[in-house]
Amino acid sequence: MAANKEAIAIVLDVGPSMNSAPPGVTTPLETALDAVTMILQRKMFAESKDEIALILVGSEDTDNPLATGECYENISIANPLGIVDFDFLQLVQNDVKPSTVSGDFLDGIVVGMDHLMNAMQGKKGFASKRLILMSDLGGEFGDDQLDDIIASIKNSETEFNVIGPDFDDDNDDDDGGGAAAGTDGGAGDSQNGSQKPKTAQQRSGTALIKYMVEEVNGECYSFSEALPALSYFQSRQVRPTAWKCPLEIGNDLKIPINGYVKVKDFKLKQSWKRIYAKDSSMELGTLRTFHRNDEEETEVDKEDTVEGHRYGNTLVPMTDDDKLNMKYKAEKCFKVLGFTKAENVKRHEMMGDGTMMVVAEKGDEAAAVALSAIIHALHETEMYAIARRVYDARSSPKVGCLVPHIKLDYQCLFWFELPFMEDVRQFTFGSLPVKDDNPSNKKYKPSEDQLSAVDNLITSMDLSTAGMDEEGKPCEVMKPKLTFNPHFQRLYQCLQHRAFNPDDPLPELSPLIAESLKPPQEVMASCTESLEKLKEKFKLEKVKKKEEVTGENMFQENGATGDEPALKKVKMDDNLDSGLEDITKSKVTEVGSTTPVDDFIALINMKDEDKFDDACSQMQKRVEQIVMDSFGDQFYEKAMDCLKCLREQCIKKLEAKSYNQFLKEFKETLISKARKDFLEKIFTDKQGLISKLECEDGVSEDDKKQFEEGEESQKPTETMEDDTADDLLGEL
User: Fold this and answer.
1) Nearest CA to 555 among 542, 566, 565?
2) Mean pLDDT of the chain, nearest integer
3) Could you say which of 389, 412, 427 is where a domain stops?
4) Average pLDDT over residues 477-502
């Protein structure tokens, strides 16, 4: 088995300096314990095989094999190297307490290294070792063995990480004492908005640790950065196991390739659901019974049951043999179906739960040359390869694209899964009225100042240049590979709390997790001005609801109760005219969008005979507008009601020609605007052309039938194309 485990020794300082903080501010020890707990949670609930040891520096007792009575005192191995379990979590939560005795953190590093090397003896499968020091470096230390410690870390190839005070302090090397350290640049730790001045002892310890880290090529993090640093303390969950299969292009060309997982959706293992935390020796089982849906709930044996699927009102039984015979059978393969321009593959069409990196098989020079030629050809012609992939004989076939990727030190193809026709969902969204050629909703068109304000906000919140690196140059913040998912850490927190406190409500969100959910401080500082300008350009006004004027409240002379005095009479010349206009319905002059059917009926019932043609024209435009403005089929029912009313009135008024001519033109519009679903609804609801049987000037039944079947005339060709595609897929 390949070595993929990690051995970690956590050296935690519990001395008095770790427990000192201003009132209301979290102490360094509390923050360190939260970080240790999160590391253990990630290892345990992800079912990692990594092993962790905990060494306490500054403990009341001494418990380590190196103690001689004079050296390595007040250092205890609280938990020896081993896989994380609930006992380890409970120890950190309940048994690690602050101490009144100071310990030497350098001696703690030596004890941690010694325990790490001795505990790994006889164990296999470890790929790396890591030593994590958590201390504010406020205790006394002896540096006489510093060179030997550095050499031991280097020779054993152990990664060295430190979580402590702010290591970017520019005043660390000053000799001004604690007063100088209280300035903005000399804060010991800026978490929770509080700055703790460094003591002279802390500045000495910080300088020594920075020297050690530089010598062993380690990493330093402040206590406020403890949570982001956890991404470094979790080993890769997916081992780089190659998927081997020849890449086939045509009938004759086969290139041996290896596929490796580049990015994959992380899913928490579910076996923790079947763990009884308090008694690991207890066997767990599942009891499931089947009952009839009757009054007695008669129990039925599992052997007498069969899976069924509802088809309308009928239940269709489906046995295991039926499933086996119906299952699509395919052989393991990786075949190129064709090539297409890169612009034809949209970003949102790249599906799947991960990305695979395709390289030539290791040690095959001919395969490397052939694959390199394909990669460069695709890159130069801006093309993608469309391929069919079957993972193994038990898997369903997938269709995806192969994207060329060329770097200075390597080149490969990236595999992205693409959707089948049944996976595609067509969503039609109306365009915002930004361009001048879009006449709809002109009143919502943003001004140049508003567009500029939004552009400035986007620019000021650009994460790619929000941070500053060590050289003072802009750099990216919240890099994906350095940003962990707070959802899982919150889940770990709740699982641990429920295991130890089964009857208590779930705990509040951890401050460290809550801090990671806030926008970066650099981004918030840079976008303040843009946000203020955005509020200025996009003013929000609360719309007051207009009170409805009725005859009751207009002419009422008494109050709510008989005891109240009479209200003041309404002046006729002030409010009567406007009130009567609101009470009585206004005269209809056109077919509106709110109640188009009622408006249409009101217009054609007027004595003016010329109004019918005008009303029909307005109704036809209104139907077309409602359909085109509909989000999906949201307004189709309203448009269909209008169409039914128009058809009915055209039959009554013997104006079938007007309706038929409109429907023929409307059909072309629906096809060109990708609204065939409404056209099908017209035929389904029998609102097609008016025939002679319904009106004298209608069309013949043959013409009506031909009009409705004209859209279906293309179906035989499409069926042949689909059959040809299916046959081609079967041959591949």
Assistant:
1) 566
2) 79
3) 427
4) 80
Q: Cα 388 from chain centroid? A: 27
Q: Can you state the angle between helices 611-629 and 596-604, rounded to 10 degrees?
A: 170
Q: How do residues 31-66 score in pLDDT, each as one tens digit?
A: 888 888 888 887 887 778 889 999 999 898 898 988
Among 229, 161, 222, smallest CA distance to 189 is for 222
Instruction: Mean pLDDT check: name the lowest of 144-153, 305-314, 577-586.
Output: 577-586
Q: How far is CA 586 from CA 110, 531, 549, 583, 599, in A?
A: 92, 45, 15, 9, 11
**What global pTM score does this model have?**
0.54
Q: What is the largest CA-CA distance in the chain?
A: 117
Residue 227 pLDDT: 56
Residue from 285, 320, 294 nearest 306 by CA: 320
Torsion angle defined by CA atoms of residues 571, 574, 577 and 582, in that order, rounded to the nearest 10 degrees: -100
DSSP assignment string, 619-664: HHHHHHHHHHH-STTTTHHHHHHHHHHHHHHHHHTT-HHHHHHHHH
Amino acid at site 549: V
Query: Is 294 contained in some domain?
Result: no
Task: Examine residue 218 and state whether it is found in any structural domain, yes or no.
Answer: yes
**For residue 181, with 0-12 CB atoms within 10 Å meaning exposed, 13-18 middle and 19 or more buried, which class applies?**
buried
For 702, the enclosing helix (H) or strand (E) is helix 701-709
Phi, psi of 89 (to 5 degrees): -60, -40
Into how many domains does the chain fold?
4
Range of the domain at 190: 5-233
d(CA 379, CA 373): 10
Record the tokens describing residue 514, joined without a space. 């809550």
CATH number at residue 158: 3.40.50.410
At 24, give phi and psi (nearest 5°): 85, 0
Q: Which amino acid is at 524?
A: M
Most confident of 276-280, 393-397, 470-474: 393-397
Extract the tokens encoding 160: 């060295």
Q: Where is average pLDDT lowest: 79-93, 317-331, 420-434, 615-629?
A: 420-434
